[in-house]
Every structure is written in C-alpha cells, then in structure tokens.
TrEMBL record:
Family the entry assigns: Belongs to the UPF0260 family.
Protein name as catalogued: UPF0260 protein MWN34_05505
Pfam families: CxxCxxCC
Length: 169
C-alpha cells in the first residue's frame, strides 16, 4: 500500500522554476491572459506600457491562446517564458504565477492550483475577461497609444484575499 502525504508542500513551494517538470511548469500558468495584451515600448527609455488590446490569438472570453502549440508560427514575437526569461523581463504582471514563484512568494487563493477551479481567476477579476477593448487586428495601429492602461500591472483591489470583490460573468 502506498501512503500519500496529503500535508506535503506543493511543488511551487518546494521547487525553483528551474526544477519544475514540463507539466508542473505549464500548470503554473494561471490563465489570466494579461501577458497576451499588446505592449508598447518607448524607443528612448525602453519602458514597456500595456494596452487593453489583445494579441490576435487571444480568446477574450477564455483568456487563453487560440493556438498555443503553434503560437510562434502565427505570432513570431510571442515571448516563450523560461525561468531565465521570467527573471529577466520586468513586465510580467504582479499577479503572474511565474513572477510570484521567482520572487519566492506564494500563489493567490484564486489560482486554480489552490482553488481547484479555473473560473476563480475570472471571478476574482484578475483575468482580462471583459477588459479587452479589441484585437490588434481590429484596432488601427494609429490608435494604439490611446489604449495604454495601467491595470495589467496592478492587482485588482481586494483580489489578494478570499472574500474580496468578485466579478461574475
Ligand atoms: S501573466 Fe503569467 S500567469 Fe498570467 S497568463 Fe501570462 S504567463 Fe500565465
Ligand atoms: S500568441 Fe498566444 S500566447 Fe502568445 S501573446 Fe498571443 S495569445 Fe498570448
């Protein structure tokens, strides 16, 4: 008989990003879709700003990529996250599970690995559901500056704690 230690710490608390298996790595993504918003970079300062415009492959309701396995064939500049990339780029949202683990922090209650439910990220208002103005294919490039937003780099008020404001759609 095999005994399972149900009190064992979960993998994201015991492993570094580099130590995770491919399955653990993929499961860590919370599915918020924030990183799939179009970002603009200032030519002089190289500062990155988010917009509320979605990548052409972003499903605005599920907040997932429409063709994740082949995404770079359609979107060559889609950033493939690795442990090194997570540590190097400065624009991952503060809620991003990869960033949290890289910073030695725990996941929030709405992460599906804790809640057991992939809808809690939407209910907590952390995903981009209902917040995407449109696809990069539908919004003229000349209008992109008008779509700069700060919310992807913020945690929604109250989302850090269970019982905080919830959004249901
Ligand atoms: S921001 Fe991080 S957790 Fe959210 S979808 Fe992107 S990679 Fe996944
Ligand atoms: S190609 Fe897919 S994973 Fe990459 S930014 Fe676009 S929607 Fe996100």
């Amino acid at each position: 008989m095999t005994l399972i230690d149900t009190d064992a710490a979960p993998f994201w608390k015991t492993k570094t990003l580099d130590e995770m298996s491919p399955e653990e790595w993929e499961s860590l993504c919370d599915g918020c879709g924030r990183c799939c918003l179009v970002k603009l970079q200032d030519e002089d300062s190289e500062a990155i700003a988010y917009t509320d415009i979605g990548c052409k492959l972003l499903n605005e309701f599920t907040c997932a990529c429409r063709d994740y396995p082949n995404r770079q064939a359609h979107v060559p500049d889609c950033v493939r996250l690795t442990p090194d990339v997570v540590r190097e780029i400065g624009w991952l949202p503060p809620s991003c599970a990869y960033r949290l683990v890289a910073e030695g922090r725990d996941l929030y209650w709405w992460h599906h690995l804790l809640s057991g439910d992939r809808d809690t990220i939407h209910q907590a208002g952390v995903s981009v559901r209902g917040r995407v103005a449109g696809s990069e294919e539908d919004i003229p490039f000349a209008d992109f500056l008008d779509h700069m937003v700060r919310w992807p780099l913020r945690l929604p008020k109250g989302a850090a704690h269970p019982g905080g404001p919830r959004r249901r759609r």
